[in-house]
Amino acid sequence: MKSCKGIENPAFVSSSPDTPRRVCASSPSIDISVLPTPAAGSPPPPAPQEPLEPPQLSGVPGASELESLSEYEEGPCGWGSFQPRALQRCNTPGGFLFHYCLLALTQGIVVNGLVNISISTIEKRYELQSSLTGLISSSYDIAFCLLSLFVSFIGERGHKPRWLAFASFMLGLGALVFSLPKFFSGKYQFGSLYEGIGYAMSILGPAVGYVLGGQLLTLYIDVDLKHSIDITEDDPRWLGAWWIGFLISWLLAWSLIIPFSCFPKHLPGTAKIQEGKVSQTHQSASLQATDGNFGQSFKDFPAALKNLMRNTVFMCLVLSTCSEALITTGFATFLPKFIENQFGLSSSSAATLAGTVLIPGAALGQILGGVLVSKFKMMCKNIMKFALLTSVISLVLTFVFAYANCENEPFAGVSESYNGTGELGNLTAPCNAHCNCLRSYYYPVCGGNGVQYFSPCYAGCTQSVSKIHPKVYYNCSCIEGEIHITPTPSSVSLEAQAGKCSSQCKNLPPFLGVFFAAIVFTFMAGTPITVSILRCVNQRQRSLALGIQCTLLRLLGTIPGPIIFGSTIDSTCILWDINECGNKGACWIYNNVRMAYMLVAISVICKIITVFFNGLAVFLYKPPPSVTDVAFQNQNAVLTAVSLECDLNKAGNDG
């Protein structure tokens, strides 16, 4: 061993985008000369052996990976050879971010805003059940699943700005198509990080959608026909102009096609950013993707997919987001409907309140989650622990639905008898049997006795005063008892007035407050889990990882979510719309208490699944060795190899 020369100290080299900053030898090999003194008559010393290369750990960057930065080719802004100088001012991360935010805003307005607040109106206009409108709401996610894996795998090496230009075209086309039923159905007969900023804009989009859609619902559905009507927004037959928002979104989305198409594949400065990235890849994940050529061909897709699916931490995080997505999309779709029916509000008021709670709560949660993770410089495992904590808190707050429900107001023939006559479940009673009332004509009136009736006919009313708003009725054979509505000089014997009875429930403010807190803690885990997913997989597989996450999130979360919620809400219906042909349409009255408890059951089950998989991810995660550990392992490996060589030479000499 004394004949061995010393070893040069290893030096740091720049890390590749795929691996942490590791320590390796400063030269490609280490020369080790062993110079024993030959004995007299002994054979000459063996020829010098090839230089001993230090063992490398799997994943240590090689020349091919260090050269891979050349793939981030930067270019000017323009179309082919047409590259105006004025456009180069936009060829910056800020310029690209501005247009990306507009696209995210438009997408949020349409998918998570206008569609959700229009559900109740569309149900009534086209006589649809909630389970079917839930499927309509999920159609975006179904289409997403068909393309996400392909786009995420190929798009990683494709021209992303042009992909976004195509996305703008398709989003605008979808918004236009969604509004077309209004024009083909005829007149309504009512008497029949940059990442954080990007995420923030995605949250702001639904907010704008809820506010814009809520205001549009105060306009009559056929506002374009410019004809007078004699009903107001408080009338249950009122339908708002839900379709206008989709036309606005169509124009906004298509206006982004040209800007996105002119951006280069990689913005200036991309290579420098990629060079400085440090990986926190889950230790048990396969390092096959560190091969510089891996993923360049579509034939690598199955292997890449298998590699990610075997990453247990990644899969746990993905499954936790799936269960969260199921309830968040379910509530985003049907929360306005829930508020409308539980607390007796109009569709526009319920949509505005839902947007006031959902969107600021989600945005605040996303921002707080990102800020806390950044401020405390959390590593991957601590980020997952933080997500686990917020999930537990949101689970506890979910029980608000069990305590904020409201009993149904008395409804004759549904929850209340006709003054002791008739049967529950039958709108016809002796007091109105002679009126030949139509079940297809829903026009509720509130009796002076505080009981709601399906229509003036079912209340047995024979006379009315139409000059007063709301319209009043009297001489009603089914209404008895003390009159609580103040009579007017024109109708001394007033017994009923048009519209639903006012809700006496006082649970709306506490419900909105607690639900807002639940939304905040739910979305506080959103950004941390996304960051954890990006950190626990290999750099070259991040786009595919997000593609897998989004696909499973749709398949297990956002697609079944609205369908499950819609079917659940339908199961609580106690009064269906039955048309002249006897076909079932939309639901008029729901069992409020049963609806609340059913939604609590779904939410609690999903939250428990979220907590389980978040906790399992924390338990299974194994961080990669630190820079110091890797350096020590490299030096130990080289020293062991050199010592072994020296021992072998010494043994040969002694022999």
Automatic annotation (TrEMBL):
The keyword Transport applies. Residues 1-65 are annotated as: Disordered. Residues 41-54 have a biased composition (Pro residues). It comes from the Eukaryota. The keyword Hydrolase does not apply. It is a multi-pass membrane protein. Residues 425-480 form the Kazal-like domain. PANTHER family: ORGANIC ANION TRANSPORTER, SOLUTE CARRIER ORGANIC ANION TRANSPORTER FAMILY MEMBER 4C1. This is Solute carrier organic anion transporter family member. It comes from Bos taurus (Bovine). The gene is SLCO4C1.
